[in-house]
Design a protein that fits this description.
homodimer; alpha/beta; Rossmann fold; six-stranded mixed beta sheet; 12 helices; DNA-binding
DNA sequence: AGACTTTTTGCAAACGTTTGCAATGAATTT
DNA sequence: AAATTCATTGCAAACGTTTGCAAAAAGTCT
């Protein structure tokens, strides 16, 4: 009896060569057929494609990348502060994450999500060097401008959500923070408030810009900028609450709050309520980010909106542009104020939520700008 | 003059062979040194490792995977309903996502995030077949039990966050939904409420189980289960709001709400407030998921907590077990009720938030159970 | 000093694709 | 009918690692 080699080895997965054998062609042809090349006869291609589909075959991506010399993956990194090891707390970033996932998949890229400790942000370079990702989107600039600059200088393709800092050597996408701050403050002034408190940590570039807007609005209206009316409330939930409690214990001399995130605004809202202060009658409150929740809570929250979907698109554009070695552009997205109950004019008879002002522009290199698109 | 070949080709990236040349050894040695193999002399290894580090070298992952025949990536899929194309709305899933990212990276896996349309969930098989990921974590079972069963049957390693359904052939990790429903309802009964409304879409397995707990609690207390006190409120924000508005327009005959998500609870809260009903005095409200926001809003929200970090760990365990071909286990995590202001007893003098009851167990294969760990 | 171990290294063959080039055969032209 | 095109296919060499095996170097024992 002849030695019989088992046809079906314990070979785990199906590969092109299997398809090739079944279709009676070579691997080259299979490869070309599946890639949709017109170098292969229509009938043959159809046969191969059908066969592959019916067998649920999908070519090994690692091998493809290796051969092609590039991957189709973009890494999205969420820096985590080592102070609070909490998972990303702010829903805003999360929503952005969701939009990014959609934007990337719809363009045929895979999304690699990475949480990295803020003092190891440099490590993300490895993602690119190792060919795991072709570029990196950083969600939140925080205090890492310097590190990001270093990465970009070393040729790592990065795009960052954050404040558009003038001399930046990396791609940035963000809202118009200064305008946002200004709109919010002007609105509160229009509501007749004069002692408007600014809640946010101005060490963060985005917050610093919002504060400038706040200050500009006050000055233009002829009011003083009272340093006592500024509190460096952090973004993270628990810490924010603690900070606010402490604040309200010591200060009560305000008639409006401008919070740099909706989360802060809502928390403040709750605390004010607990202390018997009514929103908006006693204190008007404006938040930032316009979370979907902002329109669901009571009272509904006036907030500054940044267009998330456009942001995600712009970030993807930016990281791809960065990869092609283009000069970094700073994309500033449309930024609008959405008025709701938490800043209702006391006298006014039923103001409907409305959009007050807009802004959409791009600084330095209009290339990737989708700001105005909506 | 001899032909001079340029030493430095436009060869983009550094690879092992470059390190090898610089260190005066072969690629094999570099490979082994970087892998920490003890087959290489300590001094040599140190030299190579240092060199690699200083050059920021990182081995090509595609090639590694190809050679090793496996990737170190786990795909996390977020099904998106094609009804509302919204990005993931519920913060609960997002938080879970964050925890998953941490759990995976801390164990050395990469996380591939994929949003997939709910009628193409089958496609995720391609992620595994193509070697892009070694397994899949599905966040949210929704109505896809059948599809998931099919995937598992075809040998795709999956682990699902959702309800632990008895005959399931795939790994599941979830809270004790029945107990959660029961705890919430018993608590509301203890608050003296009798017309407790259940808000949630019982077509979803998790919600169905919570409803069973609700029903059991009512029956054990000797109350009737009134079909008029059940409303299929969806999870997504806008739709939930619409549904609730419609509901409150037609029904007012309740003194408590048990909502299947905190988002629903908060929205309901806002609407009740707008209609002049006070929480908890007129209506007690209990939510589900214990979002961090639950303790920040006013009134703070009583809610059923599921341990997120443990959930993420269990999901990773599960998908790895699935990959090893182990028999599917159903992990049920500790589920507790966190009492807060929204269900404060009217008479009671300052009830502190407290945990009322616990549950942690595992059905069928205690292998991956980390339920009790915290 | 020779015959052993033991440690340290390098060679070369995979891993599963893609793609330049050459080969085949059919269709067209002369 | 030979010569020329053209459409379709296959061969074989990459892509950058890992790893079994054998070779070389360095100790250890008689």
């Amino acid at each position: 009896m002849a030695v019989m080699r088992s046809e079906k080895k314990p070979n785990t997965r199906m590969q092109m060569i299997d398809i090739a054998r079944m279709a009676g062609v070579s691997v080259s042809t299979v490869s070309r057929a599946l890639a949709g090349s017109d170098l292969v006869n229509d009938a043959t291609r159809k046969k191969i494609v059908d066969l592959a589909k019916s067998l649920r075959f999908s070519a090994n991506v690692g091998a493809q990348n290796l051969r092609r010399g590039q991957s189709q993956t973009i890494a999205v990194v969420l820096p985590k502060s080592n102070a609070d090891q909490q998972p990303v707390s702010d829903p805003f970033f999360i929503s952005l994450l969701g939009e990014l996932a959609d934007a990337l998949t719809s363009r045929g890229y895979d999304m690699l999500l990475t949480r990295v400790n803020e003092d190891h942000i440099d490590d993300v370079e490895g993602l690119v060097v190792s060919g795991r990702a072709l570029g990196i989107v950083v969600i939140g600039q925080w205090l890492h401008h310097y590190v990001l600059t270093g990465l970009a200088a070393r040729g790592v393709p990065i795009a960052v959500w954050g404040a558009t800092l003038p001399g930046s050597n990396y791609f940035t996408v963000g809202g118009d923070n200064r305008l946002g701050g200004k709109l919010a403050t002007e609105h509160l002034i229009a509501c007749g408030r004069r002692r408007i408190m600014f809640l946010g940590d101005t060490r963060l570039p985005e917050v610093a810009l919002r504060f400038e807007g706040y200050r500009d609005a006050l000055i233009e209206a002829g009011y003083l900028v009272n340093p006592g009316l500024t509190a460096a409330v952090p973004f993270e939930g628990k810490a924010a609450r603690r900070s606010l409690e402490d604040l309200f214990d010591h200060t009560a001399d305000f008639d409006a709050l401008f919070a740099c995130s909706d989360l802060i605004a809502m928390t403040a809202n709750g605390l004010l309520n607990a202390r018997g202060l009514r929103v908006p009658d006693d204190v008007c409150v404006v938040g930032y980010d316009d979370l979907s929740l902002a329109s669901q809570v009571h009272p509904t929250l006036t907030s500054v909106r940044q267009p998330l979907a456009a942001a995600a698109q712009a970030l993807v554009d930016a990281v791809l542009a960065a990869r092609e070695g283009k000069a970094p552009a700073l994309v500033v997205l449309e930024t609008t104020l959405i008025q709701r109950e938490s800043s209702q004019l006391a006298a006014g008879g039923g103001i409907k939520p409305k959009v007050t002002a807009k802004s959409a522009r791009s600084v330095k290199g209009a290339k990737g700008t989708k700001g105005a698109k909506r």
